[in-house]
Design brief:
The chain is mostly helical. Helices cover about 80% and strands about 0% of the residues.
Length: about 400
């Protein structure tokens, strides 16, 4: 690719990347308000309903790892188009299921293909960015746009539940996925020229992954990213039951509370874009982790004392989410900064850490039933603490090098 033809991170390209990166978050956030309705309609328990989220996360781990790595060989744009088209088809299929097993199976496939949006959006930013500072800013903007999805996704999901139940919610999600295919085809450029691609043979792809696996700094930041998202998914998977069952609020009030948190996610990511430029991504990462840890700690204290209220839940969860946004942005930029030789494999490895840990964490909030917030707040605190430790190990390894 000539220097003149090299794509740039224009506002239009960043906006399109942010939109397709919403695929994974919308698949959870737009769908969450339908959990109680799905539970009632199919006659299953809350923990079984949460398995539809777990299945999505397991599929996402596989999808990001496999498809993100393969994009190093086949190119980003073509891989993204095919994956998003299959994501939309799986969404329409899940809306037509009459058993929880069928919903779980197709949600797994949605995870496989929908997760590619975020993985390849990260890889495309890293491909095009000229330095770490530009990459951190670009990734922060993409992460911020991912947070915009729940702002309209959760209220839209609540309205769709009111109008047509959980089936209409999943059909609406599939319609949004179809729009992502169109945007990809019209706006997103190919960021990996043919002469920069890796052979399609499996051995070079595995060699790239092995090289990343020997990099202690990359592993520390990747683990920090996965643990940060794991703490976030504990909040996401439990928030519907906490707000509607523990605090006895309506689905609409839940969607408004969730949207407030989503706005804080956007604000946290945008603030991080400015902060990281001034103090560096590593210092900004530590500050974000400490904010999430402190907010989750306050929630645990209130929950243990039996004094956690809806009025306290909203601001503390918002602070927690703002810290999560900064943690995800900075750990992504720092990890991919170590993976310049194979950005697709690096982004895929981040996705693997993200969704494996999230799948393990997602049932934690419902361990003691759906009428208490304590297990969820403990899971949020534990994830934030472990993410802080993992990032410290990544920094230590980078300094040793």
């Amino acid at each position: 690719m000539s220097e003149q033809a090299r794509p740039t991170l224009t506002p239009g390209v960043l906006g399109a990347l942010g939109f397709v990166a919403m695929a994974g978050s919308l698949a959870t956030d737009l769908y969450l308000p339908s959990f109680p309705h799905l539970q009632e309609d199919l006659g299953v328990s809350a923990s079984v309903v949460q398995l539809t989220l777990t299945a999505f996360l397991v599929g996402a781990a596989i999808g990001q790892f496999a498809v993100g790595t393969v994009s190093d060989a086949l190119g980003r744009r073509r891989t993204l188009l095919v994956a998003l088209a299959l994501y939309a088809l799986a969404g329409f299929g899940s809306a037509a299921m009459f058993s929880i097993e069928g919903v779980i199976a197709l949600r797994f496939l949605q995870g496989v293909f929908g997760s590619v949006g975020a993985s390849l959006a990260r890889a495309i930013v890293a491909d095009i960015a000229e330095n770490r500072q530009q990459a951190t800013r670009g990734i922060s903007i993409v992460v911020a746009m991912m947070g915009v999805g729940p702002v309209f996704g959760s209220p839209l999901g609540a309205l769709l539940v009111e109008w047509g139940g959980w089936r209409l919610t999943l059909a609406g999600l599939a319609a949004v996925a179809t729009a992502m295919v169109v945007v990809t085809a019209l706006v997103i450029p190919e960021s990996l020229p043919p002469d920069a691609r890796h052979p399609t043979r499996i051995r070079p792809l595995l060699a790239n992954l092995a090289r990343l696996g020997r990099d202690g700094s990359f592993l520390g930041y990747a683990l920090s990213y996965g643990l940060t998202y794991g703490a976030f998914i504990v909040y996401i998977g439990s928030s519907s039951f906490i707000v509607q069952n523990v605090f006895d609020q309506s689905p609409v009030m839940y969607s408004l509370a969730f949207s407030a948190g989503s706005l804080c996610f956007v604000g946290g990511a945008l603030l991080n874009a400015r902060l990281a430029r001034r103090i560096g991504a590593d210092v900004a990462l530590r500050a974000a982790h400490l904010l999430a840890f402190a907010a989750a700690g306050a929630l645990v204290v209130l929950a243990v004392g039996g004094s956690l209220t809806f009025a306290a839940w909203i601001p503390l969860s918002c602070l927690f989410i703002a810290g999560i946004a900064g943690g995800m942005s900075n750990s992504t930029a720092l990890a991919l900064g170590r993976a310049g030789f194979a950005v697709g494999a690096g982004s895929a490895s981040l996705g693997l850490a993200q969704y494996v840990l999230a799948a393990a964490a997602s049932p934690l909030g419902g361990l003691w039933g759906d009428d208490t917030a304590l297990p969820a707040t403990i899971g949020m605190l534990g994830g934030a603490a472990l993410a802080l430790i993992a990032a410290a190990s990544g920094r230590a390894a980078e300094r040793r090098r």
